[in-house]
Specification:
Elements: E1 4-7, H1 14-29, E2 35-38, H2 44-53, E3 59-60, E4 69-73, E5 90-95, E6 109-112, H3 118-128, H4 135-148, H5 159-171, H6 178-186, H7 193-200, E7 202-207, E8 210-219, H8 222-243, E9 248-255, E10 260-264, H9 268-278, E11 281-283, E12 286-290, H10 295-303, E13 310-314
Amino acid sequence: MNPLFTTSYVDPDLDGVACAIAYAELLNATGVTATACVMGHPTVEAEFALSTLGVARPIQRESFLPIERVIILDASEPIHFEGRLVPEQVIEVIDHRQVNEAHLFSNAKVQIEFVGAAATLVAERFLKQDHVPSVKSAQLLQAAIISNTQHFQANTTTDRDSAMMQWLHEMAPLPDAFVQDMFAAKSDFTGEKLAHAMDIETAIFEMGDKRIGIVQLEMIGSDALVRDRRNELLQILESFRQQNNLDHIFLTILDIEAKLNRFVTVDRIMQSVLTEVLGVTFVENVGVRDGIIMRKEIVPLIKKSVVGPVTSFANDVT
């Protein structure tokens, strides 16, 4: 039988990396030979978790063509894998977002459940099958749950996320100060890191006849970033708009410590839409909204102000 790989989208975040590693471990423990791998470059936060927890980086693969079997986690859209596999190669999909195209993987067993982190679904698999994850997998899954739920502040957080976090913590607690250090690591946008992070975290949506780009960053200390580098943020957004032939674009920054979102855009139409659907008031191209709201929650709200449904999207992974 052809080799079996577990993976996530290109340039995966911590949730995708943790799920690929832990699920491969579970499969092997139950007699199914599988190998975890990554495509592209994991995010800074994912690299931090792997290094700090002493977890070996998954093998690198840029393509699964022509015949390998693949399980995808924390992803459920063929566009994330274009040119790297064909949908028929995918035998299983595990994801947690409402907007998905999992039905296009015609040979796959699909689990789409609306929890805060895909890592929660993988942890539940361990529990259901009465297998205890290794210490490293248990810690990785915890880190992914904390990250994807914004330390349990995100509106997408569920009781299932909290329950799996508690179960994993009891068997393998995270190191002291790990969470604080992890969020500090993902907040480092010094120099060229800012443009690189914004590039990776750009999602493109087609809504009716409009192409809309939404950039999402997650950090602590967003006030200083916006104050000191506002013009640079706007220049990067305009560059992305031109490069991707977008009609509209904006940046949303989730500040985990301040428990708010900051929005940045020179686009007057998007400012009006965000004011309408989220109550954001803009001053000098910057708006603030109390309470954390994630991109996956913002998109359906924007749809109500734009003619036509979302028909496709790319890189909407957190």
